[in-house]
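Continued from yesterday's entry.
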Amino acid sequence: MSLIQPTKLKKIFKVKNTGEISQLEDLVAVETKIKLLINDQEILSLSATPMHLKELVVGFILTENLIKDSWCPEELEFVEKNDELIVKIYTYEKGDLPSKTLTSGCFASYSFLNEIPPYQTFDFKVDIQSIFNSFKTFVRMAELFKTTGGFHSAALCDQENLLFFTEDIGRHNAVDKVLGYALLRRLSLEDKLILVSGRVSSDMVLKVGRWRIPFLISRSAPTSLAVELAEKIGLTLIGFLRGERFNVYSHPQRIKNLENMGG
């Protein structure tokens, strides 16, 4: 896989209000351009952190439904060229796909994922303390953010264990990496939680809803449309999980002790 490191040292000047100026080395997040080619047609160019790249690509193309025929993710080809990564995929599908360029922080849905059917079950429930415990572990693992301040985090967990953790300069990239990890391993997702560090937007709710994951939990705020969509499709959306508190924006009935609080 990529030999590009997720961080690099840069010489900087640190300036203080007292007038003191010092020169030192500081770690900064690496932003790598990635081109995605399907049947030699470039359909996507995005900026991302060069780690967990197979998970990123698989999570993105399957969530966005870019490939509809049978396809083996093991056939991905990565080519590193001049600090740029080219990902090649070959399928039996024919026809042109529109091209798209994504930066590390832009709206990330290729097709807006069409209409997401509502969840039909609320049998899977999680207790409050498990949510707090999982998120404490999640925050502790964000080493790249701690050293640079330039990364978003995402993780997949069940009721007791954190199964996969990743970081990326883009919020949506981090979620795609988590989804790709689960899809590559054919994990059941209807009893899982996704944890994220950043703002929850409507397209992030749609990504999670595409795979019928019951919980999306963030330390930051959701947008109004994210809340509306979560309510509509049946997703339990939690935000502002900080310290010993959190806000539940939709479907609290999946949280033990909140079953009778309404939907």
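--- second protein ---
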Amino acid sequence: MSEVNVLIVEDEPMVAEDIAEALNNIDFKVSAVVYTEKAALEELLQNTPDIAILDINLKNGKEGIQIAEEINRRFHIPFVYLTAYSDKQTLEMAQHTQPAGYLVKPFTEKNLFATLQLALLNHGRRLKDNFSLPALDKINTKLTAPISDREYELLAKIFEGLTTKQMAEQLFIAASTVKTHIRNIYLKLDVINRSGAIARIRELMLR
């Protein structure tokens, strides 16, 4: 669970496969690929991802927008729209749900990476809401299992919205080491993803 986990909601299997391949190439992990609104909501309940990619138009209409509304109500993770439709009416409907990004098919890996990276960064900023990462000793007074100095460094990178690869490059350690540290952070904070980690730190500091 230490990588950035992405849920893909796309009703065309070939397109979904292309998205999954592109994500793997740019250091993101596909948590699941689903084709319907019902399957998307079930996946969100069982395995909340870090971010979701939603096709606006599924088989029964603009279900992607309905999924987005449910995400805003219940799951509070960032999402981006990926769609072949870019007409004014569709854009207005999409903007009403306040997506973290919007991509029109066909997409490039470069654009996909930039959109997801910015979405995670902006979402992290909204969650923090002028809330900075507290000092390590203050965090550890609230935890049963203390966070180590190295884990604290990685926690700071989570607050910055960096990917696993970027963390590894900045700290001059292997990506596998980053994943191990982040997994330990999740265990100590009792969360399953990055948004949860940020929210948990804020909750602890309010006690």
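The chain has ten helices and five strands. The chain has two domains: 5-127, 136-205. Will compare against the first tomorrow.
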